[in-house]
Design goal:
By secondary structure, the protein is an alpha+beta fold. It is built from seven helices and seven strands; from the N terminus they run H-H-H-E-H-H-H-E-H-E-E-E-E-E. The longest helix is centred in the N-terminal third of the chain and has 13 residues. This is FAS1 domain-containing protein.
């Protein structure tokens, strides 16, 4: 609840300038205010637990940057009117990142988040922005037909959609870093569908060279 109150006090107007893709946004249901991704993530819980397949670490990272970096573009995730697509790594993806960086496989989500936070807020902010594509709502149905599409991120980098088979498990996002390729998680597709902001869970943290 503390994080929900903090986020409700942040002005949801700091939208980063970035590339858009030529895809139509999905409108929210008539008569209802659109729901932001931050609201959805927080409603699912932001406490660390033993479920490595949810998004507690990325949720905590959004809170840390939104409340700790003045004017951060990450607050776009709080503005449900702004069309965007986020590819959000699972907690397990962050644990794999920390293991790659440190050689240690940490046993708790809290320890993984602490290791990520130790990189510094500017680095965490950049990582978050590189998982957001502004200006379009890319559903999973669109993603599996977009082989070779280049998507500009809010962090200024470009990711490439690589559809190896026409299903979500074989839809990858290439960051050019040469590490393991992230794929869309079939069990976490179209989060917040029906609103301008949609998200898909992915198996790895995107890291650009």
């Amino acid at each position: 609840m503390r994080h929900r109150r903090l986020l409700s006090c942040i002005a949801a107007g700091a939208v980063a300038a970035g590339s858009t893709v030529a895809l139509a946004p999905v409108a929210s249901a008539a008569g209802h205010a659109p729901t932001s991704l931050a609201e959805v993530l927080l409603a699912d819980g932001d406490d660390f637990d033993s479920d490595w397949n949810d998004f507690d670490i990325v949720t905590q990272a959004v809170v840390a940057v939104a409340t700790g970096v003045e004017g951060t573009p990450v607050t776009v995730l709080l503005d449900g009117d702004v069309a965007l697509t986020a590819f959000i790594p699972t907690d397990r993806a962050f644990r794999a990142l920390v293991q790659d960086l440190s050689g240690q496989k940490l046993d708790s989500e809290a320890d993984v988040f602490a290791a990520v936070a130790a990189l510094g807020l500017p680095a965490v902010e950049q990582v978050l922005l590189d998982h957001v594509v502004l200006g379009a709502t890319v559903t999973s149905a669109v993603a599996v037909t977009a082989d070779g599409a280049e998507l500009g991120t809010a962090g200024g980098d470009t990711l490439v959609v690589d559809v190896r088979r026409p299903n979500a498990r074989q839809t990858f996002l290439l960051d050019g870093a040469g590490a393991r390729d992230a794929h869309l998680s079939p069990s976490h597709l179209d989060i917040n569908l029906g609103n301008p902001q949609v998200a898909h869970g992915i198996s790895e943290v995107l890291l650009f060279p």
